Amino acid sequence: MSEGNPPVSTRRGDDGTTTLLGAGRLPKNDVLHIALLGAVDEASASLGLARAEADDEEIKELLLELQRLLYRVMGDVAMPKEDNVVSPEDVRRVDKTLEGWRACIQIPNEFVVPGDSTLGGSWTSRARWCAARSAAW
């Protein structure tokens, strides 16, 4: 193992617990925190794959901004006793940006099956359902 790299596995979770920032050790079966963090992380990873496939620089920048916002959301979840990092202004800015994009594109009237467009489009669909799952928590 390289001296400068942290270990990939610490073995600290072998007792069925995990560490959240500011929350100490929590049981891995703490469904609310663990599932929520997993769903948001999946959404971010899916946006990253969509960004890797995107040709348009403006879309890449939007996807990166959304990923960074999701990292801040994960910080809020991982530090429940701290003040929220994500503000109502962040949410308004994302809503406004998405409404601007919506005004520029033709949204189909029928259900869109992921995979009928681009690979990046399919990854954004996956990010959408991961985000929807996280909203259910």
- Do you know the CATH architecture of the domain at 19-104? Up-down Bundle
Write down the CATH topology of the domain at 19-104: Hypothetical Protein Ta1238, Chain: A
Amino- and carboxy-terminal Cα gap? 38 Å
Low-confidence stretches: none
Report on this structure.
By secondary structure, the protein is mainly alpha-helical. The chain has a domain of 86 residues: Cobalamin adenosyltransferase-like (Hypothetical Protein Ta1238, Chain: A, Up-down Bundle). 58% of the residues lie in helices and 6% in strands. The chain is built from four helices and two strands; from the N terminus they run E-E-H-H-H-H. A two-stranded antiparallel ribbon has the order 1-2. Strand 1 and strand 2 form a beta hairpin. Helix 1 runs antiparallel to helix 2 and helix 1 runs antiparallel to helix 4. The longest helix has 23 residues. The protein is globular, with a radius of gyration of 18 Å. The model has no long low-confidence stretch (mean pLDDT 84).
